Backbone:
């Protein structure tokens, strides 16, 4: 087959580009350890969340020094808890599940973003910085009230977090 | 060079029956484009809060209609029309049996009507029927059974269409045992091969799970499984939209530019690559899904990146072919040749602008494909920003531009106004540049897609790229220009149909610079490519599907049903349908009698 010289060059450059793209993603995965939402959690009965140890009472819990876990339930058309209150400068792992249909969980303006599928638990870990407030939106269509489905993430100082009282339930 | 005799006869002169089918398919396609554009402008003005003429809860009926009419009806009806033309033209023989041809057209039209009715019924409160599930119909949101049934009928129609073209090809093969498959026929056959593989999954999902579930035969489905089966189909379908555009870029655009296709063998390589690579990548739409292992996502990501190759090759070949035409007509210099091109012709300018936007879409697509950067933009308005460049322009604008060239060939009617045509394609380009750019930018701010009211009470978007409000204005202006452009296209076509027929409109397609004789014979070995493609699909999907079923069970981990339609009237409907079905059976029996 006759291939023009320029065409060969183009082909070579294309393949370099493709390998470079694969390379950057691979580096992102194994280098700085950008974790993906994956199948690390086992399945769950979405109709029986109220019997589940983690999701019967959606909340934020301390699990280690500077380590926290947030158990979040998405359902038509809101998130629990709301707001989700977490301490600054800490590691927070979100476990998000749905009580009904497929939803999304997006902390606006960040890459904390996951699908929320009934029967599955999405796990995402983030590092918080300074105290601030973020919006949370459901970014997957979930029914006629989808556009009202929002929540808040409050990153507060350690002392405020300890004095937060009952507002995380 | 074409023979004088050939150039005197247009496609419709030679193949009047086939031309009628092509026209019918195109008109169905453009009717869907019209509906899609009406819903498109309604939702654009709604979500940007410029004008809200519907309650926000109806937004999702509009969005479902826009998605389904644009990417299922508009694109696929155009494809079957174009492929019917291409097979007949390039094999230079009529289809085997035009009745079969009309049968598949009829099935597609019926199926789409059923699905369309089930969607539009969502606007009428007194009809307990709706299908507000968007074009991705993710369970456990549930549509009326008619929605799924219509989709199946439509897809079966496309399968028969493919069979029709394959049979015509085989008949040609018996008469021409040693010839190379003509290029356009090759494109049709490879594209349809891909389609059979891809659509089998969505057909299985609908027939085994969604339709029985919507009819109440099973209580629940596995949402991850049906979602995965959807995306098994959902990625290759984008190439199903794109291949008609590629066919026009490879075979018609060089001719309009005054030249010839650069390389026939490379074109074949590109289509073979699509057969091989377009399916084992669908999981890239599920990077953010729980319940799917990271390894599977990674495999899908690497395949996706390789899928850039055929499009990069296409960019080269198409530009080289156009440049060849320009230089043949006196163009010189590094870029000076660009002035020796027929920019006044809407069919040329439209396709070139479409190609340019496709390149931009390719860049934003690389971001989507990057498994980690994807987290920033997944399900934000970035994504519609991306695919309005690809399917919404590379495909849609090429189809409109192609129509300016093709319609005279299939009707013997000259286009009403080339000036309006030229204005229309440029307007589309400007409108899309505005709308898509602002959509990308809003996506980066975190503005979600698929929502009636993207402004939330609880927080404000960060101010970057001009800010949320300003970008909304750009989206609204862009969308309005697109709507006007669509209406101009359709108006021009209607006026064209009112033109008296003329003679001397015939155009032929030149042979490539480097012809099929340069292409290794193995490229035409479709059996080989099908078996490799199937192997790759099994490799990419067997384990993920097994893992999903293993986790959640075939029918899901206890997930319920969330109809976005109401049940009671359905029983009444079924009662009403029973006698109707009886009547149809009787009528067909009678027909069979008459047939004897
Ligand atoms: C008249 C020109 C058009 C306008 C004004 C328009 C506008 C829009 C807008 C604003 C959205 C985003 C809605 C949302 O996510 O809330 C959208 C979605 C979409 N558009 Fe268009 N569009 C046009 C043409 C097209 C064309 C030509 C195609 C394809 C051939 C197309 C395919 C789609 C699809 C598939 C979606 C996604 C639907 C979904 O999320 O379920 N559009 N369109
Ligand atoms: Cu939602
Ligand atoms: Cu894809």
Residues:
């Amino acid at each position: 087959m006759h291939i023009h010289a320029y065409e060969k060059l183009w082909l070579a450059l294309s393949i370099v580009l493709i390998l470079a793209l694969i390379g950057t993603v691979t580096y992102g995965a194994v280098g700085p350890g950008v974790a993906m939402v994956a199948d690390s959690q086992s399945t769950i009965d979405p109709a029986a969340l109220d019997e589940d140890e983690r999701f019967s009472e959606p909340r934020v819990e301390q699990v280690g020094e500077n380590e926290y876990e947030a158990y979040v339930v998405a359902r038509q058309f809101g998130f629990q808890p709301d707001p989700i209150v977490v301490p600054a400068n800490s590691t927070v792992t979100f476990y998000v599940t749905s009580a009904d249909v497929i939803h999304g969980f997006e902390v606006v303006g960040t890459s904390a973003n996951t699908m929320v599928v009934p029967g599955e638990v999405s796990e995402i870990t983030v590092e918080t910085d300074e105290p601030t407030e973020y919006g949370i939106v459901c970014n997957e269509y979930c029914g006629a009230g989808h556009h009202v489905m929002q929540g808040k993430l409050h990153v507060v100082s350690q002392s405020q977090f300890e004095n937060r009282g009952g507002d995380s339930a | 060079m074409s023979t004088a005799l050939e150039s005197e006869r247009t496609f419709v002169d030679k193949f009047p029956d086939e031309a009628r089918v092509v026209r019918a398919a195109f008109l169905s396609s453009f009717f869907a484009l019209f509906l899609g554009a009406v819903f498109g402008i309604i939702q654009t003005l709604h979500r940007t809060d410029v004008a809200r003429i519907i309650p926000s809860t109806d937004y999702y009926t509009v969005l479902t209609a826009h998605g389904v009419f644009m990417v299922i009806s508009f694109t696929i009806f155009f494809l079957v029309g174009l492929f019917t033309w291409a097979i007949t033209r390039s094999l230079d023989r009529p289809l085997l049996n035009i009745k079969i041809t009309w049968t598949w057209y009829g099935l597609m039209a019926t199926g789409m009507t059923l699905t369309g009715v089930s969607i539009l019924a969502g606007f009428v409160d007194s009809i307990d029927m709706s299908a507000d599930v968007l074009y991705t119909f993710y369970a456990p949101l549930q549509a009326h059974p008619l929605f799924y049934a219509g989709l199946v009928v439509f897809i079966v129609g496309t399968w028969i269409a493919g069979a029709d073209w394959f049979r015509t090809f085989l008949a040609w093969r018996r008469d021409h045992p040693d010839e190379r498959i003509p290029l356009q026929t090759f494109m049709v056959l490879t594209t349809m091969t891909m389609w059979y593989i891809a659509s089998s999954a969505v057909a299985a999902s609908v027939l085994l799970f969604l339709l029985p579930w919507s009819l109440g035969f099973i209580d629940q489905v596995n949402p991850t499984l049906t979602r995965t089966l959807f995306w098994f189909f959902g990625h290759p379908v984008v190439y199903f939209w794109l291949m008609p555009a590629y066919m026009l870029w490879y075979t018609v655009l060089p001719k309009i530019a005054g030249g010839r296709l650069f390389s026939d063998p490379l074109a074949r390589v590109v289509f073979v690559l699509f057969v091989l690579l377009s399916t084992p990548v669908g999981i890239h739409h599920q990077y953010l899904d729980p319940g799917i292992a990271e390894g599977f996502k990674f495999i899908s990501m690497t395949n996706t990146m390789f899928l850039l190759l055929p499009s990069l090759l296409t960019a080269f070949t198409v530009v080289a072919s156009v440049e060849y035409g320009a230089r043949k007509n006196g163009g010189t210099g590094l870029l000076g040749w660009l002035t020796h091109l027929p920019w006044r012709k809407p069919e040329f300018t439209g396709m070139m602008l479409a190609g340019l936007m496709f390149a931009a879409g390719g860049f934003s697509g690389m971001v989507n494909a990057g498994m980690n950067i994807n987290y920033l933009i997944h399900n934000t308005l970035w994504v519609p920003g991306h695919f309005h460049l690809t399917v919404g322009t590379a495909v849609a604008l090429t189809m409109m531009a192609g129509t300016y060239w093709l319609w005279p060939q299939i009707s013997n009617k000259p286009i009403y106004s080339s000036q309006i045509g030229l204005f229309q394609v440029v307007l589309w380009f400007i409108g899309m540049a505005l709308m898509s750019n602002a959509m990308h930018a809003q996506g980066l701010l975190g503005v979600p897609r698929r929502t009636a009211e993207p402004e939330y009470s609880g927080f404000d978007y960060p101010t970057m790229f001009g800010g949320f409000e300003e970008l909304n204005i750009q989206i609204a202006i862009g969308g309005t220009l697109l709507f006007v452009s669509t209406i101009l296209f359709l108006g021009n076509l209607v006026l064209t149909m009112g033109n008296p027929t003329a003679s001397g409109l015939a155009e032929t397609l030149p042979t490539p610079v480097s012809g099929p004789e340069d292409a290794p014979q193995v490229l035409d070995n479709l059996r080989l490519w099908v078996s490799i493609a199937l192997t790759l699909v099994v490799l990419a999907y067997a384990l993920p599907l097994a893992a999903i079923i293993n986790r959640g069970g075939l029918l899901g981990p206890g997930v319920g049903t969330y109809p976005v339609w109401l049940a009671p009237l359905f029983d009444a409907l079924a009662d009403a349908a029973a006698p109707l079905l009886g009547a149809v059976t009787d009528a067909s029996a009678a027909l069979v009698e008459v047939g004897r």
Observations:
- Chain B touches chain A through 80 residues (CB under 8 Å).
- The longest helix of chain B spans residues 59-91.
